[in-house]
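In the design runs reported in the main text, the only information available to the sequence generator was the tokenized backbone. The following block is the verbatim input for one such run; it is reproduced so that readers can re-run the procedure and compare outputs position by position.
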């Protein structure tokens, strides 16, 4: 997206990864800002959206793809859920399902009209 000139807020819980990303994109035609964000925390999602609003006056698109796996190698065991730690199951739902919805909902009130 930055290669095509887009102005992007990269939001992720991995702040070291975000720093590396910002370094890699520094020469792109677009612009990138980073926001360390846990998508399970509504206030952190709102803060990430606020970075875009503060810098550029709004947010046109949200690409919500934060995700974690249920367990390493689960697919190689036929996707069996038996024995899965319930806390891990809830965490996967909180990140992969609720986090996605939260990001889309957080974007809606500030979407720019073009
Ligand atoms: N890549 C594939 O082919 C593929 C296929 C099917 C499903 N998936 C699923 O899609 C999801 C994303 O896949 P990917 O390959 O892009 O994974 P990835 O690990 O490359 O990227 C996921 C990103 O989400 C971030 N993240 C994790 N928890 C977070 C949180 N609470 N808040 C904010 N950021 C968080 C991670 O730091 C990471 O940068 C995963 O759940 C994966 O299981 C991926």
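Verbatim output:
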């Amino acid at each position: 997206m930055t290669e095509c000139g887009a102005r992007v807020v990269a939001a992720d819980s991995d702040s070291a990864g975000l720093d590396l990303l910002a370094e890699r994109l520094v020469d792109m035609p677009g612009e990138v800002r980073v926001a360390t964000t846990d998508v399970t925390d509504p206030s952190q999602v709102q803060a990430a959206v606020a970075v875009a609003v503060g810098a550029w006056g709004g947010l046109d698109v949200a690409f919500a793809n934060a995700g974690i796996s249920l367990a390493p190698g689960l697919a190689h065991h036929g996707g069996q859920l038996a024995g899965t730690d319930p806390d891990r199951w809830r965490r996967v739902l909180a990140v992969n399902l609720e986090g996605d919805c939260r990001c889309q909902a957080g974007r809606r009130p500030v979407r720019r009209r073009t």
